[in-house]
Specification:
By secondary structure, this protein is α/β, with parallel strands linked by helices. The protein has 13 helices and 8 strands. It has an 8-stranded parallel sheet. The structure holds phosphoenolpyruvate (PEP) and magnesium ion.
């Protein structure tokens, strides 16, 4: 189907009953910029900033980072670009900074690492702010957050970067700040975090891994790793509802956002912003243009109380077959 979907590039992601969806792309390598733009991506919903760190031989300098981030931000400006702060640890290793842990996914990862290496985090945020000068499309997102103090501390680092750069004579602005909802604790922390953030993005890959206690990369348990597990869907539904209640923008940037069956469910939950691999954009846009949101809500009612992923996926597949 992909081949004949090119004509969708300039058409909006709008359902039959005229509800608009924001379709963003996920990036990390500079090579990911173009595929998104070519397919009508409306912004970057997740820039994995650890990827340029992983392909280097040492920690990149502030200047090197500015150059890379500037390319990403300027390619998309004025469309928004959500840059995630360094998310290393877990399965994301830096060749020049080995981390040895028995339980890396439960260990020194994402915000936990960068708060312990405050200067690395400060440099990265300075580089992001410098790269954004004159563009103004940067948003900053924090991975693996589970606690209020982590948010206060990263907020202080951002404030410090802004005031340092202003003192140095740069016209920087404090960008919107968001968090990944990927550690399950966040589901119940949102009211405590609300006043410090502008948006939430659901990282369904890690949320699934941590909710189900299933390593996302272990083939032994790969059959147990599914976002269609009733508890994962319920968790995402709860996050979506809580964000609506708290008047917080919410999106999904995990692999689910590129899976047509999952997209039916996410739209049914009221999620209107998805960030996905550029290559899946045309298909997901086609799907959105061929459904009614009313139908997605009814479908959600049909599946949300089913007891296992098999029955859930069967219902969703049936619906997809009817759509075409
Ligand atoms: C996620 O966890 O769903 C996510 C988008 O982040 P990553 O896959 O980079 O951990
Ligand atoms: Mg993640």
């Amino acid at each position: 189907r992909q081949a004949n979907l090119a004509h969708l590039k300039s058409l909006p992601a709008e359902s039959i009953d005229q509800q608009r969806v924001n379709l963003y792309s996920n990036t990390g390598l500079l090579a990911d910029i173009r595929p998104g733009l070519e397919r009508g991506s409306e912004g970057i919903g997740l820039y994995r900033s650890e990827i340029p760190f992983m392909v280097h031989n040492t920690f990149p300098t502030e200047e090197e980072q500015v150059r890379i981030y500037r390319k990403v931000l300027s390619a998309y400006a004025p469309k928004p670009v959500v840059m995630r702060t360094l998310d290393i640890g877990g399965d994301k290793a830096l060749p020049y900074f080995p981390i040895q842990e028995e339980n890396p996914y439960l260990g020194w990862r994402g915000i936990r690492f960068t708060l312990d290496y405050r200067n690395i985090q400060l440099d990265q945020i300075r580089a992001m702010l410098l790269a954004d000068i004159g563009l103004g499309n940067l948003q900053i997102m924090v991975p693996m957050l589970s606690r209020e103090d982590e948010l206060l501390r990263i907020g202080a680092i951002i404030d410090e970067a802004v005031s340092q750069l202003k003192e140095e004579g740069h016209a920087v602005v404090r960008p919107p700040i968001g968090i990944m909802a990927e550690v399950p604790a966040v589901i119940w922390m949102l009211p405590h975090l609300r006043d410090h953030i502008d948006f939430v993005s659901i990282g369904s890959n890690d949320l699934t891994q941590y909710l189900l206690a299933v390593d996302r990369n272990n083939p032994r348990v790969a059959h147990l790793f599914t976002p269609f597990h009733p508890a994962v869907l319920r968790a995402i539904y709860d996050i979506a509802r809580e964000c609506r209640r708290l008047n917080l923008a919410v999106s999904v940037c995990g692999e689910m956002a590129g899976d047509p069956k999952a997209v039916l469910v996410l739209l049914g939950m009221g999620i209107r912003t998805l960030s996905l691999s550029a290559y899946k954009l045309p298909l997901i846009k086609w799907l959105i243009r061929n459904i009614e949101m009313r139908d997605c809500r009814l479908l959600l009612d049909d599946i949300i109380d089913l007891p296992n992923e098999k029955e859930i996926q069967k219902k969703l597949e049936q619906r997809l077959d009817e759509i075409g």
